[in-house]
Amino acid sequence: MVDIVQRSGCPINLTLEMLGDRWSLIIIRDLMFGNRRHFRELLTHSEEGIASNILADRLRRLTESGLLSRRDDPSHKQKGIYSLTEPSIQLVPLLAQMGAWGRRHTRVSEELSIRAELLEEGGPAMWAAFMEELRALHLDAPVPERSVFAELQAAYLAVVAKNAEAG
Amino acid sequence: MVDIVQRSGCPINLTLEMLGDRWSLIIIRDLMFGNRRHFRELLTHSEEGIASNILADRLRRLTESGLLSRRDDPSHKQKGIYSLTEPSIQLVPLLAQMGAWGRRHTRVSEELSIRAELLEEGGPAMWAAFMEELRALHLDAPVPERSVFAELQAAYLAVVAKNAEAG
DNA sequence: ATGACTGATCTTATAATGCAAGTGGTTTTA
DNA sequence: TAAAACCACTTGCATTATAAGATCAGTCAT
């Protein structure tokens, strides 16, 4: 994401050209798992502390390349609402694999990796259910019965609560 | 891959910190699917044209972070042989997902995406077989019966031959 | 000993990043 | 209604990362 020139037609390379930087997937992750939908939410609730200019730049690039869409917020004339698109919703299996790999091979924190653990255990069936739900949240698709989002959030909050009382 | 500071304990973020740049996964891909084992092979056979200083830098960083290992080549005192390690072999499912996504959402070339197609169709069973084979090639594990590497290579060469006669 | 190869480095230029402050507007509050 | 707070960005600037090409000194086969 950054390049305009195409280095090669290899699918791994082209995926890296779109998403292979330090911030794009972080933003998509927050939109997807944290349901952050506007600029300020993405900026201030960022675990990693993204800078505002970088956030603005990436939102623009991701929107241009079709991974996000933006529409005006009717409740506030300056606010925009960012949504995932079908291509970025289809990143769910990729993000699940990244989470699974990171959980195994990097020094993750328990609180932030519980979601990755559930997604890994849930496997492709859970990923598909989550994608259905994201289509409802971001693309006006019908709301499915199962809410993977709620499952992940509940598990996260349970770990946070447990660790808060433990100390 | 560049950061020393840890931005957050999120597994997706930590994976990005290790691999989220434009070249690290390209190098791992070439080592994995192209069996390029030393500097010059990685440099000159690179589809994407990596610069020698970037290649040297990434090989050093990847080796430092445990994703590659390096040993001397007994046939040439200056040559090193780079190998995948267990953590990088476990990137197979991630690379398969990246290939699958890229094949669907970017403008891939037929020749370079046939491997991604096979890997996607083969699913987790094929990934596991490929990982077994990589352990034999890179980590002195016993050689398995099935050679996914040969299957991928044959399919690639078949497409190259078909397109050469057609075009 | 010569000429090609190897892995690596230097130079120079461009681009990305992080931080702080500022912009022009909108909404909320007193 | 005026002041304060909020909103989505934008700008300026210093730092750092990346890229392409030339160059380097060991090593090898002949």
Explained architecture:
The structure is a homodimer of 167-residue chains. The first copy, chain A, is mainly alpha-helical. Helix content of chain A is 63%, strand content 6%. Chain A is built from eight helices and two strands. The first copy, chain A, has helices spanning 11-19, 24-33, 39-44, 52-64, 86-89, 92-105, 110-139, 148-166; strands at 68-72, 80-84. Chain A has a two-stranded antiparallel ribbon. In chain A, helix 6 (92-105) runs antiparallel to helix 7 and helix 7 runs antiparallel to helix 8. The longest helix of chain A is centred in the last third of the chain and has 30 residues, at 110-139. The first copy, chain A, is globular and about 50 Å long. In chain A, 38% of the residues are buried. The model of chain A has no long low-confidence stretch (mean pLDDT 91). Chain B binds a DNA duplex (30 and 30 nucleotides) through helix 3, helix 4 and strand 2.
